[in-house]
Amino acid sequence: MADKIIPSFKAADLVIELSSTPKPKPDVIPFGTVFTDHMLTIEWNASEGWQAPLIKPFGNLSLHPATSSLHYAIQLYEGLKAYRGDDKQLRFFRPMLNLKRMSNTAKRACLPAFDESEFLECIRQLVETDKDWVPHSDSGSLYIRPTFIATEPALGLRKPGSALLYVILCQVGSYFKNKAEPLSMWADPKYTRAWKGGTGDCKMGGNYGCSLFPQYEAEEHGCQQALWLYGEDHQITEAGTMNLFLHWINEDGEEELATPPLDGLILPGVTRLSVLELTRKWGEFKVTERYLTMSQLCSALKQQRVKGMFGSGTASMICPIGHIVYQGEKLHIPCQDNNSLLTQRLTKELTDIQYGCTPSDWTVLV
Ligand SMILES: Cc1ncc(COP(=O)(O)O)c(C=O)c1O
To answer: Which of 246, 295, 314, 340 could pair with 308 in a Cys bridge, judged by C-beta atoms 3.0 to 4.6 Å apart?
Structure first.
């Protein structure tokens, strides 16, 4: 059967209005505070459909005070990066996975569908326009934030009749303040990030705003991030805004790299999938998507079967976990010299691909 054609904007209709006042590029900046000179906007409304994409000087949005994204959180976002290799070439890392995830989230948010390839070409042209902002460093990159908001100018919870898809860009260096330090996590079952039938597998802003309160409680307990548990058996689901991996000798005595399955609770991370695919290709140990509980982790720690734990995500890449505070106890997670060999190897293989040192069909040239 032929694929259904999605009514979408077309990259060929893109209009570019260049800024006449480009900003000086900062040397080092805190993440997400200084944006590049341009942004991409694409408007949609129910009667006329998608309008022509526009690249224009970066600026504020003008929204009606009743705008439905502000009242009912009908909005979503994505996060991906463009990397500059030693060969000066800019690359995206598996961008269609982000855009497919964005489409899935848009469907769940009752926002209109679009053609992901057309959107990628518009983003490519935005990055090309602001290419001088992509850092010349092997740890820096350009963060790309596609955002999709309902702009219905009326109260009343209903499917939006108008929406705005836009993309902004900012430079990014190292995500965590203490990069080399393994993360400290606080695990308390009184909070949960996601639940069966909910939107944990979608990248909606609402999932993140409500995680702030537990995040601050984690800090009060001397930890950097919340380790999200779920259910009576305290399943381990995600680590802050990262997917979670446990490298251990499992109950059957096998060396295993395990991460929770995509059952609706877990965000299908691009880095998660890449770690699964890389380690499966190595074929050196069992790689499994399976449920993991705190009691399984505690027994494994007691029996010295844990080799390491880490979080994975675009922002932080591969982040070792050093300890977990759980039920009043500080659980020490083994990691050698701040970084286990596995996390070092994964970081190297992934960055070599992202920065073009290892040729791979996972990258798309800008
Ligand atoms: C809750 C959550 N889990 C995992 C991830 C990691 O996903 P990715 O590897 O696509 O960045 C993110 C970041 O987007 C996230 O917000």
So the answer is: 340
Q: Kindly tell me if the per-residue pLDDT of 52 is higher than 90.
A: yes
Judge whether residue 175 has pLDDT over 70.
no
Q: Quick one: pLDDT at residue 339?
A: 56
Same domain, 225 and 285: yes
Single-letter code of the amino acid located at 123: I
250-285 pLDDT tens trace: 999 999 999 999 999 999 999 999 999 999 999 999
Query: Cα 202 from chain centroid?
Result: 10
Binning pLDDT at 50, 70 and 90, where does residue 178 land? very low
CA of 272 to the centre of ligand 1 (A): 8
Q: Are residues 348 and 209 in the same domain?
A: yes
Give distance in angstroms: CA of 53 to centre of ligand 1: 27
Q: Which two tokens stand for residue 224?
A: 């950097």
Ligand 1 atom 16: residue of nearest CA? 241
Which three-class secondary structure state does DSSP give residue 173? coil
Report the alpha-carbon distance of residue 364 to residue 219 in Å, rounded.
Answer: 38
**Whether residue 189 sits in one domain with residue 163:** no
Q: What is the pLDDT at residue 14?
A: 97
Residue 361 is assigned to a structural domain of this protein: no
CATH code, domain carrying 325: 3.20.10.10
E strand or H helix at 344, and its extent? helix 341-354
Rounded CA separation 293/236 (Å): 5
The number of beta carbons lying within 10 Å of the beta carbon of residue 354 is 25
Angstrom distance (rounded) from CA 349 to CA 33:
30
Alpha-carbon distances, residue 23 vs 54, 56, 90, 311, 312 (angstroms): 20, 14, 21, 35, 33
Separation of CA 185 and ligand 1 centre (Å): 17
Q: Is 209's pLDDT higher than 60? A: yes
Please state, in angstroms and rounded to a whole number, the distance separating the CA atoms of residues 158 and 44. 16
